[in-house]
Amino acid sequence: MKKNKKIRISIAAALIAVAAIVGIWFSQPAYTLTMDVNPSIEIVSNRLDKVVEVNPINSDAREMLRDFKIKNRNLKGTIEDLADLMVLKGYISGGKDNLVMITVSDNAISKESVEKLNNAIVAYLENKQIEATVFNQAVDKKYKDSKTGKDLIAEKISGLDDDADYSRLLNMTLKELIEYAEDRNISSEKLFSRIVGTKPSKETVKEAVKDYKEFIGIEKAKEIALKLVDGNGEIVKFKLDDVYDDDDDNPEYEIEIAADGYEYEIEIDAYTGEVLGVDKDEIDE
User: Fold this and answer.
1) What is the pTM of this model?
2) Whether the predicted pLDDT of 10 surpasses 70
3) What are the E-state strand segments in 86-176?
4) How far is 153 from 133, CA to CA, in rounded Å?
5) What is the DSSP-derived secondary structure letter of residue 188?
6) What mean pLDDT value characterizes the chain?
7) Architecture of the domain made up of 218-282
8) Which residue, 2, 41, 51, 144, has most beta carbons within 10 Å?
């Protein structure tokens, strides 16, 4: 009897030890990604997509993050908080060509996770009626450490253009680097692995990258929705759902319209403009 009890205690202790080891393994830093606008920021996450650290890489980021505290350990939440801070500080704003670049190490994070981050950034900004284009690049980890994503793009361009002045490229903004590459017929697909957004920096970017995906935009989504009620309704709610936590394939515009005593809930594919669903309910007086 005592022997069986000892065995049970040993098994329980072993299970607790295994659970502790697994818990530590999942909570440890697993990968880093760099978010470049002009401030360049390193985000360190664990295998549960919980943010462990947020570190500045350049002087603009050090100034911007001076009083920044991680409020939401969720990766998507942290990305949105950083985007919000960039809007507040004027690095991202309406009426200009906003470019955001996400740099990750090869195989460090799944393509699906990167796609969700892309959608989260674009959807968050579009809900604030700010247009943005998100660029992705995947690089070997040994080249990524301690460098901004913009610096890595400068290195790529320098390697593809024998006449390029590397020191000059390092002082360019991301937009200037993209325009420099286009002027020298350097294909965007040689620089970026993915581009997602509401508006490309130039039409040639859209044409150069086969995997480019462009949102139809707020006005087009509203136009499609209003046509479903013969153009006579009033939009009472509008949201771009980035589907970060859903199983749907694409982001969706969720639109509510009041028309002729009825409320319509309409879902529209953000990439294709396809109407995914329409619910109609009578408005209670």
Assistant:
1) 0.62
2) no
3) 98-105, 132-139
4) 16
5) G
6) 77
7) Roll (3.10)
8) 41
